[in-house]
Task: structure prediction
Amino acid sequence: MRKLIAWVVLLCGFMPVLWAADGCDQHLSREEFRAKQKAFIIEQAGLSKKEAAKFFPVYFELQDKKKKLNDESWDLMRKGKDDKTTEAQYAEINDKVANNRIAADQLDKTYLGKFKKILSSKKIFLVQRAEMRFHREMIKGMNRGKDKGNDSKKK
Result:
């Protein structure tokens, strides 16, 4: 259960899921993913066109900044795969990855203040809930796609 919660939080924070929600093996472009995410959040959170027009540029700015931190963390993790990595280098990698997670959380807190200037607290809550649901649906879609592939191999 802890792993599931950690994955959901990580996915919500960094948006690495880029597969279609219908479970097919279609790879979505960044623009397609954002369009689906935006439509889902607008519907689930009940945002007006005016609210959405003000909110999403700020929301995607936050996502871009968090993606940059996530990409940096992944680059660090790849460096740790080298058999020649020393204990000191692992310690540095661990510290930098942890600092990136803290920085992402600080960005969330900073942008919450920006969101409050655009949306009510209730709408922000609804957006956050919709974002989590969106990522859960994306994961379900990915899992359905994997299950379909496994079923065809079993036959």
